[in-house]
Amino acid sequence: MEPVFSQVSAWSYAFAATLHALFGIYLGMAWRRGRRGAFLLAVVAASALWAGANWAFSLSGWVWLFQLGNLLDVLRMAAWFGFLIAMLYQSADGHRDDDLPGWPRPGALAVVSCAAVGVACFNIGLPLYGTPLRTWAATSLMSAVFGLVLLELFYRSVPERSRWGVRPLTLALVGLFAFDVYLFSEMLLFSRIHPVIWSVRGFAHTIALPLVAVSASRNPEWTIRVSVSRNVVFHSTALAVSGLFLLLIAGAGYYMRYFGGEWGEALQLALLFGGALVFVVMFFSGAFRARLKVFLAKNFFAYRYDYRTEWLGVTQALSVAGDGLSLGESVVKALADLVESSGGGVWLRDANGGYSQQARLNMPPCGMQEKEGSPFCSYLLDNEWIVNFEELRGGYSPARGFQVPGWAQDVDDMWLIVPLISSGVLVGFVVLLTPRAPVDVNWEVLDLLKMAGRQAASYFARMQATEALLEVRKFDAFNRMSAFVVHDLKNLVAQLSLMLRNAERHKDNPEFQADMLDTVRHVEERMRGLMTQLMEKTPINQRKPVALKPLLERIIQSKRLAHPRPVFRGDAPEVAVLAHGERLERILGHIVQNALDATSEHGSVSVALSQERNTACITVQDTGSGMSSAFIREQLFKPFQTTKASGMGIGAYEAQQYVHELGGNITVHSEVGAGSRFEISLPIAAFAQNAVDTAQAD
Fold first, then answer.
1. Non-local CB neighbours of 169 within 8 Å, separated by 6+ positions
2. Cβ(4)–Cβ(32) under 8 Å?
3. Is residue 526 a contact partner of residue 558, using CB atoms and an 8 Å limit?
4. Average pLDDT over residues 224-239
5. pLDDT tens digits, 465-493
């Protein structure tokens, strides 16, 4: 070999050896003990060893490595012949691979043996055709020609419908055998090994190997489970096309620079700039990528889609809704990407009983609506039919009962309408615009769109159910707050009624007049606060330290006109709790008022405040009618349970709920006819937040 080509041959055969070795390992792991799979595995193994021997020869120059490579080349060709003969037998009699008894027939072995004997004679120095070199060239040339003949017989024996699966393999072998014919013909004519052709032979085998892998993945009956990723094929093809384009631009620029005279350098720069600009446009062009994907899907894969990848892609697109896109926009994007559409819109059922555009992507707004129960919607629901407007424009007439909606004529570039059906309900439909590249809408595309439509419909149905639940919860919270407000208004009205009853007797008493003004002022402030709370639709729950002693004194002062009049007993400590002052005053005032309502004029109602470690204890005790243990257990703190003729039954319930929110507790001791004692324990302000967090965790 000439030294100038030593590096080229070393890299060429190194690539070939590495790629064949990796592919051989993968085939060995995927092999399911089939006959043709065994031959293919032998081909790849022999090719890896042959390339490795030639690589070692390129680095060392040892002749015995060159002869070893030639012997391994014979074994590689024999394995290819055995594979093709096994394929011929299968195509001829229709047997499955596992049903073929024995190994290849004697005729095939005789041919392979003759080729092996010829090369072996060259290796041991027995020339059969002049010189050993010409003997090697002649036998190798005949083997390559025989391979082409065998390949032609095999391809013709394959039925037309099955040629798609073996076409990549056929193209690869035609290229390899033709390359060998060219190499060994030149060697036979000029009695020398052309260093360039011999060096490039490794690259030729490396380039042809992916075609072999594609055929292996298309033919699972070879009992080799080979899976070729669509993404890998797409990106590899795009990279190869980009590289070829850049090489052409570079070659053209080189030619212009050296043969263009004084314009050469200028033309080269202009060409390189234009080529780079075209490359960038192609790289970022959705239409180019779409056309490339369609081309690869049609020519390299049995099924157009990798369903596992597509399903994961749709699920991922829907699950990340909110990252810059709404759920409706995410659904449009997910369905549009499946068929290379440029965008579209989604129509969902609204509160008016119709379907209106709720989201869009690369589509102008459309204010038209489709009524629920219209012939169009009924047809979509009953048939789950995907409307193809290209077919309708081409004269296709759908089944009876279908009517094209009038608003569809106003939407430019409308292509497909995909119904969104969940649990037998038409949630909505998606309108997709004309695709970037021509797409054949066959059964596979329709099934994939239906699958994605059902998935999207389930997301929309869940979103609508969640929104309805949130709305119900908002109304429930508002109704509950309204009930508390009405309950407070009832108490304020009771205070005003009591004041009016006493006004007839004490209207001339200046002290009573002052108390009456204080009561009216207090009622006015409370009613204004309740109106603010009701208008804002959310309870006011901002917590801050509230001193209990002044709060209880205000409650007792507000009840001073009642009979009996409540009293404050004992020495009250100066403690505070973390709460909303007005709400806490309201619930404690309710407990005191209940005690007054249950006690006759000759009885007593007392309020006491004490501290036990980190807890403030409020005790409200009366000598009234009392309650049974069953009533306390089953009715006292249940909403809308009351024994009063004009009561609402939510005061005690609200008191218990709020005390628990503050991290406290209410304990009731009562006997029928002996009175009741309410004990309210609340964490003081310094420890209140820990108590609240613990209560929420429970």
1. 211, 212, 214, 215, 216
2. no
3. no
4. 55
5. 877 777 777 667 666 666 666 666 766 67
